[in-house]
Amino acid sequence: MAKKDEPINDFHRSLQLLAKKLTFEEYTLVAGTMFQLHAGMTFGYKKIFDPQILPDISYIWQIHHKKAFENKAKILKLKVVRGGKDVKH
Known about the structure:
By secondary structure, this protein is an all-alpha fold. The protein has helices at 10-21, 24-39, 53-70.
């Protein structure tokens, strides 16, 4: 386990960012996938450096980034309450 006094690297920064932005289930999925990549799974890409992964990463971000922000808005119903100075007698 990473200790608090160890220098933070890009892997740790990535995990921190994911922990802030994702649900626990989403975080577990991404962290598990990162572990599988580290263990040698290729997910259909070549074992050596495969440049096709970079356009795939960009394409997936473009598709899903906008959708993530569209679903974050909250709609509140407001109730009109009359009283005080706006009441006409």
